Amino acid sequence: xxxxxxxxxxxxxxxxxxxxxxxxxxxxxxxxxxxxxxxxxxxxxxxxxxxxxxxxxxxxxxxxxxxxxxxxxxxxxxxxxxxxxxxxxxxxxxxxxxxxxxxxxxxxxxxxxxxxxxxxxxxxxxxxxxxxxxxxxxxxxxxxxxxxxxxxxxxxxxxxxxxxxxxxxxxxxxxxxxxxxxxxxxxxxxxxxxxxxxxxxxxxxxxxxxxxxxxxxxxxxxxxxxxxxxxxxxxxxxxxxxxxxxxxxxxxxxxxxxxxxxxxxxxxxxxxxxxxxxxxxxxxxxxxxxxxxxxxxxxxxxxxxxxxxxxxxxxxxxxxxxxxxxx
Length: 327
Known about the structure:
Rossmann fold, NAD, Gfo/Idh/MocA-like_OxRdtase_N, nucleotide binding, 9 helices, Putative dehydrogenase, 8-stranded mixed sheet, NAD(P)-bd_dom_sf
């Protein structure tokens, strides 16, 4: 069977990482790149570099990776859909709900496979957490709290911290719990002089009653990527920077000292940091989308799921502006 022919649209910061993976992906040939600015990072490796999506389509591709700024997701995605080309689009799916809806409908109506590059889903720590939650290791999930903070990335100019960073947490929380957001409330701040928000504190509720909290900012001199999932049997702490998953188990040894038992509440049990395989999340993401295009079993972030994330993100932004909870 011939390899799939893949194209890359956008050869910037994320594009060069996608180019590296696509160039070495089993069953796939990276056959061309689109970037009006040329191959500034030297990722083409002798492959043709085009100025337009139409030129890439004419070159012949089975699917494309879209790694352009969020503002261009809609025109690029629509051009691919109209050409009958499958596509995986970097997160967030689009810059607003209307554009995300248009993209989801365009691919669906043509029977095309579309995916969104929410890479955190493929982090080994969260993959393991999802499996263990499904297996009942936590019992009922009571709360998911995420912290995602770090310095401002100068390359991001078209969206704020909610669309750029918080969409990671919105997507991974819905995915790892297999629930949907039913309510979200947020406070946002503008501290760096930009048009878009640079910090957000959000709290909400999922479809099975799980309470969620997201703290996200571009204002911290430290970098943190932590997801804490608390259930009836204990707590998972996933550090997606190190891909470590630690389980803090509720104690099984009864405390007979009454005053101490009343003071401590849930008792401390075993603490386990799991030894888990740690494949590169970006490679896993591409492998899963390749499998989807081939009609094989896969786990991709669908355009409908990407749309749901954009909707929740915009509810956060609107709530931050108006101070009201959004259902």
